[in-house]
Amino acid sequence: MADTQENGSGSDSKSARTRRRILDSAAQVLSNKGYAGLRLSDVADLAEVQAPAIYYYFSSREDLIEEVMWSGVAELRKHLEEALDKLPDGTTPLDRFSVAIEEHLRHELDLSNYATASIRNAGQVPQAIRERQVAEENAYGAIWADILRAAQSAGEIRGDIDVHTALMLVFGAMNWTSEWWDPERGDIDDLVSTAKAFILNGLAGS
Amino acid sequence: MADTQENGSGSDSKSARTRRRILDSAAQVLSNKGYAGLRLSDVADLAEVQAPAIYYYFSSREDLIEEVMWSGVAELRKHLEEALDKLPDGTTPLDRFSVAIEEHLRHELDLSNYATASIRNAGQVPQAIRERQVAEENAYGAIWADILRAAQSAGEIRGDIDVHTALMLVFGAMNWTSEWWDPERGDIDDLVSTAKAFILNGLAGS
Amino acid sequence: MADTQENGSGSDSKSARTRRRILDSAAQVLSNKGYAGLRLSDVADLAEVQAPAIYYYFSSREDLIEEVMWSGVAELRKHLEEALDKLPDGTTPLDRFSVAIEEHLRHELDLSNYATASIRNAGQVPQAIRERQVAEENAYGAIWADILRAAQSAGEIRGDIDVHTALMLVFGAMNWTSEWWDPERGDIDDLVSTAKAFILNGLAGS
Amino acid sequence: MADTQENGSGSDSKSARTRRRILDSAAQVLSNKGYAGLRLSDVADLAEVQAPAIYYYFSSREDLIEEVMWSGVAELRKHLEEALDKLPDGTTPLDRFSVAIEEHLRHELDLSNYATASIRNAGQVPQAIRERQVAEENAYGAIWADILRAAQSAGEIRGDIDVHTALMLVFGAMNWTSEWWDPERGDIDDLVSTAKAFILNGLAGS
DNA sequence: GATGAATGAGCTTTCATTCAT
DNA sequence: CATGAATGAAAGCTCATTCAT
To answer: How do residues C108-143 score in pLDDT, each as one tens digit?
Structure first.
């Protein structure tokens, strides 16, 4: 599944499908080899096209990578927003938080090379590429921060904790999973419940 | 300090000092540009030598990088072992754990390009380089696992938690700090105490 | 006018007009960028067609360029022949020569990208393209040589001068104008009269 | 001789000789194939080095070409200045002019790929490269203009002629020779004397 | 010990050209 | 007639690496 996800929806003309294949391949290579290690020829091989065909769809290597990095976070956000929207009206902030943790982890580990590509390369990509991604990250972070603040107001988590620092520690614990978690050896349900317990206890505290 | 740390001690002949400068520079470049993004010419510039001079000290680019990656973790372990050895005999596992968190964070953020280089590039480095680093990581992880298990036996943290998963979540929260924490804007003491509270509560749980 | 000239006449079906537009555009690009610098995509943009459409009218890039280079001189010759034919029967060789100078200059500077394309790229085009152009050039040169020899016989210009060398010096003075003369800043009538005086005196001599 | 000229003088260390060989080769290729047609691999073949070696001496293709274009005119000027300096004090402007014609032609035809490269590609090179060359051209043109004005003051040539236009016609006649004159078939002394007669008569006039 | 000089492999990118539609 | 899609070949350029000095 991890290798065949579709990014976004939309038309599926032959042209659109080729573009998608290139983008998917780039996400996978980026995720494995890193920004500087991504070679267009590897992307092309995976996408089953010749390397110059990439230039029919993207104006440069940077352009292609930018779109992967940007849509990695965008997709994560869309995913989360949809999940939160489905919750019944009276759901408590802490329950919403719990859902967010689950969605983030499942999307990162189960579905998306885009997410892992974004996460792993955030620190290595040149400034020009970084900017649009940062905008998306801020939007994504804002959703989490809102939930966290609501939980604080509701007294569900400690009030003395700095929201930004807390969020970053939580993201750290979650994002790092893609570095060590092996889908072949672990059960994702176990991971999700352990992570939830760790994080919620960490923030609820005594 | 972060840019001028010395890795290990030992002889300080001119030759040894040049070697150290090259290694330090490689750690810094590796930390910023990633494995594939490291260019020997950048390392040479930082170390103030000519690029071919690197070959006098290291037999190849891979060799140089391997040493950085490997000593990043080795250094972290030495650091931790020394700190733990200094603790009085009766120190509880949980207190030892608390000290470990503090040492890991301070070393990563304050002292060492080696540590961040190791952490950031663990997933992108080729297998050949990875192996020795993995051995070091296992040794380092074993120290943490011992403490954790002792704490579990002592009933200081929950017994239902899987030690390996817990450890990885903790490492995630800590390692990710190097991606977002800005020494210019935050106080490291605050970060350390927030991280300790988050992690210890997360594992103690209700 | 210089950018919209039509080369030759003939059928004006939509197809023929598109072909003409492509040829005109090629002449202009060739004139500005040179043989190796001509890109079909530039020609296509100027002609307002898609690049592959060019292949409907010309079997290759070389083919297209050959036609421009060849018709550049052909057109110059047709132009000159018409002008000479209009002269009254008794016109002296020297007067015919004077008319030739004027026609050549006006056509080159005022009317035709084809002429400048031919002139500027004569030395850089591959042999295969060159041949047909050389044939045209010889025919064109023959007209000039005839006039010059007649003038020599009539004693209107020096007899000791080598006709071929003289002709080449004259062509040089004229052809070079397209490299330096700026229609925005100079008056073409002034240029024509100065050039006539220079050339005719140069050949008449003392 | 044309293929083996040395450009400028100076040290002849091995390194300097390689640099010179690359520059000489570039001048020759530029002269034959034009700006867009110059391939570094052709230059490298002629210079008997591998293509990337060029980058040891020049930072880019443009850089290399700029130096050829610029030094083509610079060399021409140096050549001319030296010849004029050798003339006895009382030499008339017209005699100086005559010497200038001779030096220009001989240098262009006999000695220098640099000169022909500069002349042929002046119109096709991008603006960035052009600028430095234009400066040199102006300096070179100023020498000629000075002589011409002096001759006008001395009444040696017509007073009604525009100096700039005249100069351009003269340069045209001379520069064009490299397009048609074949050293195998013609005698350069004949060409020089014919050209002198043509130009001087052209400007002296009746 | 260290460097100037050079190379070979491999990268991104461009471009003429083809072909199914 | 014309175009969207794609390719093969080759270009400029970068970089790790070598080697004589």
So the answer is: 998 778 989 998 898 889 988 999 999 999 999 999
Q: Which residue of B has its CA nearest to A172?
A: B173
Question: Is residue B179, in this structure, part of any structural domain at all?
Answer: yes
Q: Is residue A143 part of a domain?
A: yes
**How long is the CA A53 to C1' E21 vector, in angstroms?**
19
Closest residue in chain C to residue D175, using alpha carbons only: C172
- 10-residue mean pLDDT profile of chain D (206 residues): values are 41 83 94 92 93 94 94 92 95 95 93 87 89 93 96 90 94 93 91 94 79
Q: How far apart are CA A141 and CA A134, in angstroms?
A: 10
Nucleic strand E near CB of residue D41 (< 7 Å): no
What is the tens place of the pLDDT at every residue in C185-200?
989 999 999 999 999 9
Residues of D in contact with C124 (CB under 8 A): 32-34, 37, 120
Domain count, chain B: 1
> Taking CB atoms and an 8 Å cutoff, what residues of chain C touch D124?
32-34, 37, 120
Q: Which residue is nearest to nucleotide E15 (CA to C1')?
A: C39
Q: Which two tokens stand for residue C3?
A: 């950018």
Identify the domain containing residue D138 by its residue range: 68-204
